[in-house]
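About this split. The held-out portion is used to measure sequence recovery: a designer receives only the structure tokens and must propose an amino acid at every position. Recovery is the fraction of positions where the proposal matches the reference. Here is one held-out target exactly as it appears in the evaluation file.
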């Protein structure tokens, strides 16, 4: 049960991390090209 819950939350955290990396990348590109 604990592992199952951890897997679910892990997937959500992974999604948040990907979104954050995308935002940071876009911000860096924006700063470099503006």
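Reference sequence for scoring:
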């Amino acid at each position: 049960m604990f592992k199952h819950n951890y897997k679910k939350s892990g997937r959500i955290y992974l999604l948040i991390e990907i979104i954050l990396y995308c935002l940071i990348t876009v911000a860096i590109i924006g700063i470099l090209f503006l």
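Annotator remark: Residues 14 and 20 are 10 Å apart (CA to CA).
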